[in-house]
Amino acid sequence: MKVYEKVIQVILLICAMCAILGVGLITLFILKEGIPLIGEYGFFKFVGGTTWAPLRGEYGILPMIIGSVLTTIGALMIGVPIGIGCAIYLAEIATSHVVKLMNPIIELLAGIPSVIYGLYGLTVIVPWIRKAFNNQGFSILAGSIILAIMVLPTIINISQNAIKSVPGEYKEGAVALGSSHWQAIVTVIIPAARSGIIAAIVLALGRAIGETMAIIMVIGNTPVLPKSILEPARTLTGNIGIEMGYASFEHQEALFATGIILFVFIMVLNIGVNMIPKRIGEK
């Protein structure tokens, strides 16, 4: 190996180590600030408690966990079918002119600040829900719709690339055996692109559960257990974003502890979803 190649290799290694170090330092900081509160208050009382009242020293985050889960599931239920359908259309059906027109629009969606999505939800989605369901409008449903729109670029772009990366011989073989174009897409191309599509869903999941500003503007931010998707709620990220500015002492530690739960929650979801392709492959 030449000298300049060794130098480049060392530089790249340093870059990789810096990224790992950054994640490690963030993790250590959150653990240092949040673990004492969890140890004092009790893990199960903290995670399973239904009352969040910092002035009374009560820090139950179950309502925020439920709010985050319901909002994220709702966003994926809306966004995943639309996103994958759009990716299939762009990769397999649309003409080149349509693809050239739509791809920049989809990329533009990815670059819009989250506060703009929040304003749209506040002025369009919330009033529509208020009129349609005769309630206050601020709800889990409003949050799910906004998050579904926000994750569409991630799902569409990654799924489209995964579908395009499937070798053309797969479709040609299916068509040669008598399958129609649509049958080849459903039975051959989509299964072959499964890992890429699942990666798109995982990234969309991370984007949805980690969103803060847009959700704060439309979900209602009530720290109580929601009984339906038409009721207001509060997410884990929203809880941190709303209260961190004025929190201190034990209250601040409780917010850092909330960050720990969110961090672990995302890790568990990612590990679980990443195991799906292996299990399917084993069958």
Write the layout of secondary structure elements.
Blueprint: H1 3-41, H2 43-48, E1 52-53, E2 58-59, H3 62-93, H4 96-111, H5 114-133, H6 140-164, H7 168-176, H8 181-192, H9 194-210, H10 213-218, H11 236-243, H12 249-274, H13 276-282
Antiparallel strand pairs: 1-2
Helix pairs in contact: 1-12, 3-6, 3-9, 3-11, 4-6, 5-6, 6-9, 7-8, 9-12, 11-12
3D structure, described in words:
With 283 residues, this protein is mostly helical. The chain has one domain (52-282): MetI-like fold (Orthogonal Bundle). 79% of the residues lie in helices and 1% in strands. The protein has 13 helices and 2 strands, in the order ααββααααααααααα. The chain has helices spanning 3-41, 43-48, 62-93, 96-111, 114-133, 140-164, 168-176, 181-192, 194-210, 213-218, 236-243, 249-274, 276-282, and strands at 52-53, 58-59. Strands 1-2 form a two-stranded antiparallel sheet. A hairpin with a 4-residue loop joins strand 1 and strand 2 (58-59). Helix 7 (168-176) packs across helix 8.
Task: Please tag this protein with its features.
single chain; 283 residues; mainly alpha; MetI-like fold; two-stranded antiparallel ribbon; 2 strands
- SSE topology string: HHEEHHHHHHHHHHH
Which value, in Å, is the CA radius of gyration? 22 Å
CATH superfamily: MetI-like
| Termini separation | 44 Å
Number of contiguous helices: 13
Widest β-sheet, arrangement of strands: 1-2
